[in-house]
Each structure stands twice: as structure tokens, then as C-alpha cells.
Design brief:
The chain is built from 13 helices and 9 strands. With 316 residues, the chain is of the alpha/beta class. It has one domain (7-314): Rossmann fold. It has a 9-stranded mixed β-sheet, with helices on both faces. Strand 6, helix 3 and strand 7 (146-152) form a beta-alpha-beta unit. The longest helix has 17 residues, at 298-314.
């Protein structure tokens, strides 16, 4: 492939995942393979009218596209076109061997490649956890390609960097980032018993009933793929090695931050600090939600996203 090109190949339509159902039956969706400009094959779920405004949903650690199952149908029914990738290293997308393959510059370039593959110039991007970090980075690095930015429970990269340097409380909450820098040991440990430790962490850090046995089985099957856990942890290793830098960290497009206050990993003060890096930012707090906001409060999150994205839907 030549530089700047992306290829889309529809490989199967109307295929469900996790017990045969991605989301409500009213949403028809396709599974596609998109090849990025550097040859990485990304698995993408797509839904909605091809003429509708595009929204790209980016998952975080340790999930995959299944993490947005509650949002796809409502967004499509509200008049949006939705693309949901397994980001590189996750799910059915390619797993790359080198730490530098997961630099934020490359991850944000993947988002632009998806927008190109969809055949449009600009799109709204919504991210949760690591997906939110990629969304922030993409909006800062490629401002002309992003119309609106939706963020769930991860701060702006500069706000996170300051907290890790200055906040003892956040340092303690982020202990696992340091642990993940150790070679091979983290992926071996969390891979024991098909990811039992990560599954317990998901349940222990969320409201009761948030993750069903079926949900966890989907994720545990994904984590059990060869090289999957190492690829997922390489995201943290690359970030710590600072493979990417932003020339202008300010976000110029409209931003809506949705934040579960009971997040066990990230303090709510980081949400407020992130607004300093936005020309037009809004913050909505969910007092009874945790880090796993879109799972725990799907209806409220969907309403907030649809309201925020509606200007793109109605634009001529």
C-alpha cells in the first residue's frame, strides 16, 4: 500500500459476538478489516447509514469493540454512522511485537486511517480509558480531522502527566503502570487461569452486576489469544518510554467529558484539570458510577453523547 492510503474489506455481515448478539437486534452491523497505512489490519464493526455523520468509538484496556455494545444501536437510531475498531493489539486486530508499535502517534494515525477508510474528511471520536487517551491525542495531533471529542474517564495527557509527577494519591492509584514496565512478568501473571486476575479486577472496580459471566467469558477468550496480553501491556510500556510528543496539546474542537466519580484508578480532579486544555469543554459527572461508566449508566451516557453529537448530525 502507498503512504496515506487505507483499505476496507467487508469480510462478513450481521455476525454477532458474545453469545451471538452485539447489541439490540434493531442495529444491523458489519464486520470489516481495515488495513492502515503501515500495514496493520484492524477489525472494525460498522453500523448505520453511510451518508450519516461518522462517530468512531475507541475502547480501552482490557476490553475490545464489545465494550461499546450498549452504545452502537442508540447512536445508529439517532442518525449516526458508527465505526468501532478493535484497536491494534486487541481482539481480532493485528498484534505487533514491538513496544514502539503502540506509540500514541501510531495509535492516533490508526484513527485517521479509519476515517479515511470510511470515505469522509472528518468524524467525531469518543473514547473510554485508553481509547480516550487515543482520542485526546488524535484531536490534538490531527485537529482538522476531528469534529467533536467525547471522553469517558481518562484525563487529557498533560493533566495525567502532571498528576503522575505531583500527586502522591494518583501515583498510588497508578501503581500498575510501573508494574507493567517489568519485562514478561505482568503478562505471565495476568494470563494465569485465562485472565482470572483481570476478570476479578473488572468486577472489583465496578458496580455489582456490571460484568456478567458471559461478558467476562468474551474478554477472557480474547485475552487468551497468542500474544494478546503482551500487546495490551505494550501500550503502557510505550507510553512510559515517551515514544510520542505533542507539539500543541490544546484541543480546539468541542469536548464533552463524562466521568464516573467512583473511579478506582483516576481521581475526579483530573477531569476538572482536563478542561484547562480545551477551548470548548464541558464536564458531566456521574456520582454513582465507576471507571466503567458506559456499562453502568448506558442510557444516561447514550443521551449525553447523542445530545453532544447532534450538531454533527444536523449539519448540512
Amino acid at each position: 500500500m502507498t503512504g496515506g492510503e487505507s483499505a476496507v474489506n467487508q469480510v462478513e455481515t450481521d455476525r454477532g459476538i458474545a453469545q451471538g448478539e452485539l447489541t439490540k437486534p434493531s442495529a444491523r452491523f458489519c464486520h470489516r478489516q481495515v488495513e492502515t497505512h503501515d500495514g496493520v489490519c484492524l477489525h472494525v464493526i460498522t453500523a448505520g447509514d453511510e451518508d450519516a455523520p461518522l462517530v468512531v468509538l475507541l475502547h480501552g484496556f482490557p476490553e475490545d469493540c464489545f465494550g461499546w455494545r450498549h452504545q452502537i444501536t442508540p447512536l445508529v437510531e439517532a442518525g449516526f454512522r458508527v465505526w468501532v475498531p478493535d484497536q491494534r493489539g486487541y481482539g481480532e486486530s493485528d498484534r505487533l511485537p514491538r513496544v514502539r508499535d503502540y506509540a500514541l502517534d501510531r495509535l492516533s494515525d490508526d484513527v485517521v486511517d479509519l476515517i479515511d477508510a470510511a470515505g469522509v474528511e472528518r468524524a467525531a471520536v469518543v473514547g473510554h480509558d485508553w481509547g480516550a487517551a487515543v482520542a485526546w491525542w488524535t484531536a490534538a495531533r490531527h485537529p482538522a480531522r476531528i469534529t467533536r471529542l467525547g471522553i469517558l474517564n481518562v484525563p487529557h495527557p498533560m493533566a495525567m502527566e502532571r498528576a503522575l509527577l505531583r500527586s502522591p494519591a494518583q501515583m498510588l492509584r497508578s501503581w500498575y503502570i510501573v508494574f507493567f514496565q517489568i519485562p514478561w512478568l505482568p503478562e505471565w501473571l495476568i494470563g494465569l487461569r485465562r485472565g482470572a486476575l483481570v476478570a476479578r479486577t473488572l468486577r472489583g472496580s465496578s458496580r455489582p452486576g456490571t460484568f456478567t459471566d458471559a461478558d467476562l467469558e468474551h474478554y477472557r477468550a480474547a485475552w487468551s489469544r497468542p500474544g494478546a496480553l503482551r500487546a495490551m501491556i505494550h501500550w503502557y510500556r510505550s507510553a512510559a518510554r515517551r515514544h510520542s510528543r505533542l507539539e500543541d496539546p490544546q484541543i480546539h474542537c468541542p469536548v464533552r467529558i463524562l466521568w464516573g466519580v467512583r473511579d478506582a484508578f483516576l481521581g475526579v480532579e483530573l477531569a476538572h484539570a482536563s478542561l484547562e486544555h480545551c477551548d470548548a469543554g464541558e464536564l458531566t459527572l456521574f456520582e454513582n458510577a465507576t471507571h466503567w461508566l458506559q456499562h453502568e449508566e448506558p442510557d444516561a451516557v447514550n443521551r449525553a453523547l447523542i445530545d453532544f453529537l447532534s450538531d454533527d448530525r444536523t449539519a448540512p
